[in-house]
Amino acid sequence: MLMRTQLSWAGHTSRMEDHRFPKIVLYGELATGCHKRGAPKKRYKDSLKQHLSLGRIDCHQWSTLVSNRDSWRHTIHDTAASFDNGCRVSLEEKRQCRKNHSSPISPKEMFRCAFCDRTCLSHIGLFSHQHACSKRG
User: Fold this and answer.
1) Which of 43, 75, 92, 111 is a plausible cystine mate for 120, CB 3.0–4.6 Å?
2) Residue 100 in 3-state DSSP?
């Protein structure tokens, strides 16, 4: 939703006349000034370029796409839909990977408590459990 809104606003701004303030701010640069130490702050233009690249839109030719309002709307809609579907597929793949790796542990890989014969799945879990068991008994 944010990507769609930002791309829509960027298209609207780039179609504006050159003397309009939003276009001046979007395309302008500071004539003087200095940067503070450290990493530069992220600007609106930086996130716009990131969204354009995520949507596989060429950063150098996007202004020609924007000139036709209907094709730009269609491009934004397709870009946002493909990005959303890609995120969903990626999340589903991660979920399946997690589910496949959490297969049952064989009995030889389990750890048994010396005090109460409880089975733990990890060495650190066994250590923590034995510490609690030793205090009880």
Assistant:
1) 111
2) helix
Can you tell me the distance from the alpha carbon of 121 to that of 84, in angstroms, rounded to the nearest whole number?
Answer: 37
Helices (H), 15-122: 21-27, 44-54, 62-66, 69-101
Give the separation between CA 56 and CA 78, rounded to whole angstroms. Answer: 11
Average pLDDT of span 66-72 = 86
User: Domain coordinates of the chain in residue numbers?
Assistant: 2-29+41-101, 107-136
pTM of the model: 0.54
d(CA 113, CA 111): 7
Q: Is the dihedral of CA 24, 27, 33, 35 positive or negative?
A: positive
Give the E-state strand segments of the chain in sequence order: 111-112, 119-120
CA dihedral 54, 84, 5, 41 (to 10 degrees): -40
